[in-house]
Amino acid sequence: MADTFKNFIGGEWVEPSTGQYFENRNPARQSDLIGMWPRSGKEDVDRAAKAAKAAFDGWRLTPAPERGAILKTVGDLLVERKDDIARAATREMGKVWAETKGDVQEGIDTAYYAATYGRQLFGRTVPSELRSKWAMSVRRPIGVAGLITPFNFPLAIPTWKMFPALLCGNSVVIKPGEDVPHTVSLLVEILEEAGIPKGVVNLVHGYGAEVGEHIVRHPDIPVISFTGSTETGKTIGRTCGEMHKRLSLEMGGKNAQIVMADADMDLALNGVLWGAFGTTGQRCTATSRLLLQDEIHDEFVERLSEGARKLKLGYGNDDGVEVGPLINARALEKVQKYVEIGKQEGTCVLGGERATGDGLDDGFFFQPTIFTDIQAGSRMATEEIFGPVLSVIRFKDADEAFRINNEVKYGLSSSLYTRDVNLSFRAFQDLDNGITYVNAPTIGAEAHLPFGGVKQTGNGHREGGWEVYEFYSETKVCYVDYSGKLQRAQIDNYEASPY
Ligand code: UN1
Questions:
Q1: Residue 192 annotated as catalytic
Q2: What digits encode the pLDDT tens for the residues 435-460?
Q3: Per the structure, how many domains does the chain have?
Q4: Exactly one of 178, 250, 322, 384 is catalytic; which is it?
Q5: 387 CA distance to ligand 1 centroid (A)?
C-alpha cells in the first residue's frame, strides 16, 4: 500500500473533503508509486481560506523581526534536511540530484534573505510641506495570499512566494503543482516544526481546475501569485482583474543565447549545454534558442551536437546521470509535437526521438534534440516548448541578433557570449528581457535579486530580491499634525489662512 498524505489546514493535517486522492509517480520510473495525495475541492479551499483569514490578525501583529526569526529556523531545518528533500524532489520531479540540491539551496537562500528582511521592512520619513507636521510611509500586509506553484522548482518556487508573503505578515494558502506534492508537504512540515502559528500556512493539494481556480476566485484571498503557463496566467489575470486582486504572474519564456564570433567558444558551448538541457529544458529560463554568428555556426553546431550526444540520461537519483525525464506524458506529447513542427521548419541534427533502452523505457525520457536552419519568426523560433529541444538560428551581426532576440512575445532571460565590453552594455540596454547574462547561460538567477520578465512573461512584478516585498505589502502613508490647528496642505502654505 502506498503512503497517503494530507492537506494542512488551520494547523492540522486533514483529509480532503472529497475523500479522493491522486497518485504521484516517479517520472523516471512509472512503476514507482511515491504515494497518494488529496484531490481536494472547493470545500477544502474554503476551509483553508477561513483558517488563513482567522490567523491573519495574530500574524500581522507579530513583530516582523519575530516573523523573520521563524523563517531563519525554517532555513536551518532546510539546511539539515537538504539532501533528503532533494532526493524526494528528484523522485517526483525527475531532475538530477545535484539540481534538486540547488533547488533546496535556493529555498535556503530565500529563507535567510527573508529572515534579514524582518529587520528592514523599510518605510520612508519625508519632510512635510507644512510646519509642525510629520509624514512617513510604512509597509502593511494585505491579508491571505493564494500561491499556485509549478512542478519544475518544487522547493524553490514555493519558498520564493511563501517566505516573503509570510515575512510581510500575510497568511498563506498554497497549492503546489500536482506532479510534485511531496516536496511542499516536506516544506510545510518544516514550517510547522519551526513554530509557524496555526492557520498562517495552509496547504491544499489538488488540480488546477479543482483547487487553483477556487483559490483565484475566493473573495477572502486578495493576493494571488502564480507561476506557470501564459494561457493559465491569462485566465487568472482576467479573474483577478474583475475581482480587483493583486496578482503576480511568472509565465513563459523563449530565451536566447547569442554567441558572437569573438566569444570564448568552450565557455559558450558549456553554457548552452547547461542552459538548454539542464532540468531537461523544463525551466522558464531554459535556453531554447541558440543564435550563432555566421562565421562560427557550423563548427559550433558540430561541437554542440557532440557534447549533447554524450549527456547521460537516467533516473536523477542514480550516480553519473546528467539529464532526467520530462515530467509527464503530456509533456512528452508536447515535445513530440514540436519535433514534428521542427522537422518541417528546419533540420534535426541531433535527437528527435523518445529515449529508450538502458533503464529508460519506464520513464518520460526524450533525447537532447537540436534543430538547425530555423528561421526567425517561425514557430520553433517563437513558441515555448519546455523540453530538451534547441532551435539554432544564424545571424550576421549584433543588430540582427538583438532584433531576433526581441522578436518573441516573451521576455524572461537572454545571454550574450562576447569579449566586447561595449556590446555587453548595449545588450543590457537593448535586449527586451527581465534578466540579461553576459558570458553565462540563460539560467542561474540568484535568490537575492529580482526575478522576472517583460512582455508576456509576466505582469510587471518580480519575485526574489527586494522587489517582492513590495508585492506582498501595501504602502500606508501616515501624517501627524502636531501644530494644534487645522493646516490645509497646498493652500495654507501658499495663502494666509482664513480660519
Ligand atoms: C523557473 O524556471 O521557473 O534562474 C525558475 C534559474 C533558476 C530559477 C528558474 N534559479 O534558472
A1: no
A2: 999 999 999 999 999 999 999 999 99
A3: 2
A4: 250
A5: 14
